[in-house]
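Quick start: read one record
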Amino acid sequence: MKPILTSYVRLAEIVVVAILAIFAALTYRELSALRKIPVSLPNYEFEIAAGSEPGGLVQTRGTWISAGGIPEPLQTTTIECRKATMRCVQSAAVIQFIDEKGLLESRQTEFEVARWSDKEIVTKPVSGSCATQTLTLDLVEKRARSQVSAKPESSRCQEVRNRTLELVAGYRSRTPEAPAAAKP
C-alpha cells in the first residue's frame, strides 16, 4: 500500500474508534440513569363512577410531582373517594434510596371530606409527624392536587417544606418540564 493510503486508513480507524467511544459513554450514562430509577410508574387515571355506588365514587392514580419543580420521592399513589362515607383513602408505594439500594414502603392515609360538590372534592387536613396534607380533586378538569404544609413546631423535621403537588403520569416524574405545561 502506498504511504498516503495507509495514513488515511489509520485516520479512518481513529475516527471510528472515537465514535464508538462516544456511543459507549452515552450508553453507560443511560444505564446509570436506569439503575437509579429501576421501575416504570403507571399512567395517570381519573375516573368518576357515579352510578356504581350510592352518592358516587371517584378514583385516581398517578405520581405526585411538585409544582415548583422540586423532585418528590419515586412513588405511585392511588386515591379513592366515596361520597357515601365522605372519606378519601390515599394509598402510596414509595421507593426510598439508601446507599444506592431501593427500599419499597407502602403508606395509607385516610382523609375526611370537607366539601363534595359537582366540581370538586376537598378534604380536611391530615396531620403527620412533620407535615399536614390536604387533597383537592377537580372533577371538571379531572386533576388531583395536594397541599403539603410543614409543621413548624416539630424541630426534627427541618427538611420538610411547604409545597403543592399534582398527580400526573409516572413518566413525568423523570422529565424537567413544569407540571402545568402539559396535561396528565
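The chain is about 20% helix and 45% strand.
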